């Protein structure tokens, strides 16, 4: 399967790309013709020859795409019925021209008459509203959205996004939204195609090339944007390409310290397994050395399970400070199974004083700061690592909350998943990995307040990851990559991709202990992928 382009464009950015395409010499009618033809092609794949297809057209360009699709499908022998929201004489611009071309072949009916025809159709095409809709569906469109057309018909194909879905946030605009079996979109994906619940509402997403020149996008090359006038995408898909180019190469004359030394803090007796999961993941992903720092009471318990991973006693913040005085220990993971409370807060703040070490704060290390006073101390300590401000340097800190932990740590932050992750990164000074089937990784903004921070969205996570200890392994993978000197966002996005791919390879029945054992297989494939990318000049 061809991998989609990595850039993701918001509604506003996509509208700019459309405008730039016209400025670059592509007629807007050509773009609409190509879009409608692409919709017709997908409709043909979803139905048998001569099938009954109902097309619901809106009053804007999305409806124009629908009229084009109707014409192409009619020419191919399909039984096509078109229903329009609003009066045909009120259509404007390209949509009006495409409606005129359709009228030379067939009729246009009122949307209010679509009910029975839709129920009897082999396929329904939703061309009512695209991603740019800014208000909830109402009237006849809302009624149709609530009638489960995707169930009553042979299927539903959406144009751009299902009507009623916000393409930028992935959230429904109101109570009514269409649910598609397949969605055809153009040039680049939008956040709504990959963030839940939009990802579920879109069904299978097909990305069509409609002739928008690549020059409509600007790309960084040698520190300069090429072309400068293009859309600058600040949201990207996580990908095998990212992971392949990120994992460190192994040099023939290197030694174990060349690949860092990760330190994982263990919880007390009877709560040590989470730390060992993280430690094994850090070692498997390539950290040259890994040490578990264990409470004295749990030394024997940990020793009974560890072989290639080293073990040291550590009970107090003073002790962890001395351990990290050895700057070869350049990555730290704290949180899994560690416990919630004052002791955890003391240990975290002491760890953050070791500015040469990358830090992953997970699980209990996050929940321990779910208090306004405590979290302000945490954020201040993180920002001190970046030079007294998130924009003046890099903190080398990754926070890995799931939605519940995020709500406790950032109770005042609202908005889309992307917006929330960005706000949290700016507030804390750390890279935020907001977990889920659509994990979002955001870094703090630079000092230029008008430039959004780069966001990566991971989409390869299977449901098998919903198992105890899975998050501990993810945290360990990130710590192991930080130990190998990857920057925070790269370590986080590479770790989450590898983590999900391990689960994909294993499949049903996965438990957390299985994940680190699949990492070598994934790494072999990533090294091979890197060679392939380099040989192809990418």
Task: Please provide a brief summary of the model.
The chain is α/β, with parallel strands linked by helices and 538 residues long. 41% of the residues lie in helices and 16% in strands.
Can you offer a commentary on this structure?
There is one protein chain. The chain is of the alpha/beta class and about 550 residues long. It folds into 2 domains: about 5-220, YjeF N-terminal domain (Rossmann fold, 3-Layer(aba) Sandwich); about 235-245 and about 255-535, 3-Layer(aba) Sandwich (UDP-N-acetylmuramoyl-L-alanine:D-glutamate ligase). Helix content is about 40%, strand content about 15%. It has an 11-stranded mixed sheet, sandwiched between helices. The protein has a 7-stranded parallel sheet with strand order 4-3-2-5-6-7-8, sandwiched between helices. Strands 10-9-11 form a 3-stranded mixed sheet. Helix 10 (about 240-245) packs across helix 20 (about 490-505). The protein is elongated and about 85 Å long. The model is unreliable at about 390 (pLDDT under 50).
């Amino acid at each position: 399967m061809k991998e989609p382009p990595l850039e993701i464009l918001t509604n506003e950015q996509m509208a700019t790309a459309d405008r730039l395409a016209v400025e670059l010499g592509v007629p807007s009618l050509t773009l609409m013709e190509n879009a409608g033809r692409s919709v017709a092609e997908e409709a043909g794949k979803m139905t048998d020859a001569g099938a009954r297809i109902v097309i619901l057209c809106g009053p804007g360009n999305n409806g124009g795409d629908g009229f084009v699709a109707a014409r192409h499908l009619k020419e191919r022998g399909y039984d096509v019925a078109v229903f329009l929201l609003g009066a045909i004489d009120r259509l404007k611009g390209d949509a009006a021209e495409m409606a005129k071309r359709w009228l030379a072949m067939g009729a246009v009916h009122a949307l209010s008459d679509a009910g029975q025809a839709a129920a009897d159709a082999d396929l329904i095409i939703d061309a009512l509203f695209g991603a740019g809709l800014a208000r909830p569906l109402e009237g006849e469109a809302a009624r149709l959205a609530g009638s489960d057309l995707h169930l009553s018909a042979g299927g539903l194909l959406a144009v751009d996004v299902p009507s009623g879905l916000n393409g930028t946030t992935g959230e429904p605009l109101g109570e009514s939204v269409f649910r598609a079996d397949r969605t055809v979109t153009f040039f680049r994906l939008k956040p709504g195609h990959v963030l839940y619940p939009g990802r579920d509402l879109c069904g299978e997403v097909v990305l069509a090339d409609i002739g928008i020149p690549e020059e409509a996008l600007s790309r960084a090359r040698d520190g300069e944007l090429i072309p400068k006038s293009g859309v600058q995408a600040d949201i990207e898909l996580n990908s095998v390409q990212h992971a392949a180019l990120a994992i460190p190469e192994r040099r023939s004359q290197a030694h174990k310290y060349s690949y860092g030394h990760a330190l994982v803090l263990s919880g007390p007796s009877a709560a040590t397994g989470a730390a060992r999961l993280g430690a094994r993941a850090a070692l498997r992903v390539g950290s040259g050395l890994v040490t578990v720092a264990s409470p004295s009471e749990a030394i024997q318990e940990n020793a009974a399970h560890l072989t290639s991973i080293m073990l040291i006693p550590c009970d107090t913040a003073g002790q962890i400070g001395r351990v990290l005085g050895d700057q070869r220990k350049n990555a730290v993971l704290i949180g899994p199974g560690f416990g919630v409370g004052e002791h955890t807060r003391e240990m975290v703040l002491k760890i953050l004083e070791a500015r040469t070490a990358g830090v992953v704060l997970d699980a209990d290390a996050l929940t321990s700061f779910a208090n306004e006073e405590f979290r302000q101390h945490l954020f201040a300590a993180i920002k001190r690592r970046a030079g007294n401000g998130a924009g003046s340097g890099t903190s080398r800190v990754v926070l890995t909350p799931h939605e519940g932990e995020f709500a406790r740590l950032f109770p005042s932050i609202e908005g889309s998943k992307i917006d929330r992750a960005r706000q949290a990164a700016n507030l804390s000074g750390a890279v935020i990995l907001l977990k889920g089937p659509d994990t979002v990784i955001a870094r703090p903004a630079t000092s230029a307040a008008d430039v959004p921070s780069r966001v990566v969205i991971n989409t390869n996570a299977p449901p098998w990851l919903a198992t105890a200890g899975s998050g501990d392994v993810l945290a360990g993978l990130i710590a192991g990559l930080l130990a190998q000197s990857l920057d925070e966002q790269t370590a986080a996005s590479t770790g989450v991709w590898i983590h999900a791919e391990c689960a994909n390879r294993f499949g049903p029945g996965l438990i957390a202990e299985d994940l680190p054992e699949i990492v070598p297989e994934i790494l072999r494939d990533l090294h091979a992928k890197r060679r392939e990318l380099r040989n192809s000049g990418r």
